[in-house]
Amino acid sequence: MVGYFPFFIQLENAPGLIVGGGTVALRKAEKLLPYGPRLTVVAPEIGPELAALPSLTLVRRPFREEDVEGMAFVIAASGDRALNHQVAGLCREKGIPVNVVDDKEACSFLFPALVKRGELSVGISTGGSSPTAAIWLKEQIAALLPEGLEAILAWLEEQRPMLKARWPEERDRARGFSALFSACLGLGRPLTVEEREECLKEAEPCR
């Protein structure tokens, strides 16, 4: 095993299936929902906390093979090992990414420990070898993130069109973004227009 490559994919409006209605399925849904997928939960019994989550499609019946059709990804979290393996095998046949709870060998992708601050997402994985270590690393990273980072990142994204128009060359823009980011970190907040212009004046490329 050479490890898992950390793809970051767009899940907004992507159809996803969770097979299972218990606490493990609840945890998976809570991690996924902030990224905007359209989740369907299939299980004979669905716990009240899971059922109360917004934007879920709830199907209270046993899993059927056709449930995976059209899904961008599937989570097998039923608590029934045989059923989870059935779901995983079916997904692999159809080329659908599948995560099987507590069974790394049956997974085609793993859930990372997540740190999320607005548009920033940090995923930590030990390849399934030590979830405890992944959680520890998550806590360490979360503690290192400065206050106001979410607002700073949103502000920097707003500056992108201006910088592209101002400095067409990528290396010049990179210098500008670096200067803006450093200034924001120093102040702990986004810059005012005056502060931004002063910062960019100092970062103006030499010709």
Q: Which properties best describe this structure?
A:
207 residues, alpha/beta, 5-stranded parallel sheet, two-stranded antiparallel sheet, 7 strands, elongated
Task: Outline the structure in words.
With 207 residues, this protein is α/β, with parallel strands linked by helices. It has helices spanning 23-32, 48-51, 81-94, 131-144, 149-166, 170-187, 193-202; strands spanning 15-19, 38-42, 56-59, 73-76, 98-100, 113-117, 120-124. It is elongated. The model has no long low-confidence stretch (mean pLDDT 93).
Could you tell me the strand content as a percent range?
5-15%
Percent range of helical residues: 40-55%
Q: Main sheet?
A: 5 strands, parallel
Q: How much is the average pLDDT?
A: 93
Rounded to the nearest angstrom, the distance between the terminal CA atoms is 50 Å
Order of helices and strands: EHEHEEHEEEHHHH
What's the overall geometry? elongated
What's the gyration radius in Å? 22 Å
Query: What's the number of helices?
Result: 7
Major sheet: arrangement of strands: 3-2-1-4-5
Q: Tally of extended strands?
A: 7
